[in-house]
Amino acid sequence: MNSRSNSSGQVLGILIILLALLGAGAWWLFSNKQAMTKEGREFGRETIQRLVVQHDLNFLSSHLSPEARRQFPPSMQQEIISKLQEFGAPVGPIDVQGDILFQSHFFEPRGNFHARLNYPARPANIDISISHPVGRWQIDDLSFVPETAR
User: What is the pTM of this model?
Assistant: First the structure.
């Protein structure tokens, strides 16, 4: 009888440890997802701010994904920044819309952000796609489209 109670006590102890590990793992996954979502939103807003207001070519070139580097070689990057500089600074605050979605429930975050920019001459739209494959956020795609003149 005594050996049965010892083995059932050991099994109960192992179950408690396993449940604690599962709980800690689930907590880590959810808190990591929440942190990645917050970081992604901040990166999306910062990217639009750095491009539209500061016209930061270094930021653009250092945050492009490998695929985006092929799509936007240095000459195209300079052309985008030059076009943004021609328009100057937008009038009023920049309203950035968008969010982060995960390809699998907790991994492979991607985001799409859009901002309508009010310039004195005419409005324009900027769209960016971002992702966080390994290590840091990166820009996957970018488009700046001025609307027809008023």
Answer: 0.86
